[in-house]
Specification:
Elements (H helix, E strand, L loop, with lengths): L1 E10 L5 E4 L5 E2 L2 H9 L6 H11 L18 E2 L2 E4 L4 E3 L6 H9 L3 H15 L6 H9 L6 H14 L5
Bound molecules: zinc ion.
Length: 161
């Protein structure tokens, strides 16, 4: 059982950050907290707007405008739990940061990264070859980027399976 101590909520229009103290709900696990804020009810701007208002001292969460459903108006970077755990919810990394995270991984982690990519790619609506072709056709792909893709293809098709 986990309890939330504080939810960091940023209003992306004003840049203001508030800390929402949720005092009632107890969750089964960290995963269920993550799910509630990443995919569940609290992933929606309408509920985040109410939490943001309450965090600003309005205990009823009354708002001047009726909160609209959607995503992107509020960002939840972190949730602190009573047990000291920090959960990262909305992580907005730049492409450079994503590449840097990959660069700093061990070989095992990089292998797991490709396994995860395979799991995710399995659910894409457009098949992987079409996705790869779309990347190759981008004018934004530099010679260096293309070379990395070519090398990955070359080294991963060395006959071992
Ligand atoms: Zn909503």
């Amino acid at each position: 059982m986990d309890k939330i101590m504080s939810v960091e909520i940023r209003n992306n229009e004003t840049g203001e950050t508030r800390y929402f103290m949720e005092d009632e709900d107890t969750y089964e696990s960290e995963d269920s907290i993550y799910f509630a804020w990443a995919d569940g009810n609290y992933s929606c701007d309408c509920n985040r707007a109410i939490a943001f208002a309450r965090a600003g001292g309005d205990e009823y969460g009354n708002l001047i405008d009726t909160p609209q459903c959607g995503h992107g108006k509020y960002t939840v970077p972190r949730i602190w739990l009573m047990n000291g755990t920090v959960i990262n919810v909305d992580v907005d990394l730049t492409t450079y940061e994503v590449a840097l995270v990959f660069y700093r991984m061990s070989s095992n982690k990089r292998a797991e990264f490709f396994n995860s990519l395979a799991d995710i790619a399995y659910n894409w609506l457009t098949p992987l070859p079409s996705q790869l072709e779309a990347i190759i056709n981008r004018k934004s792909l530099t010679r260096g980027g293309k070379e990395i893709m070519r090398k990955i293809g070359e080294y991963s098709s060395d006959g071992r399976d």
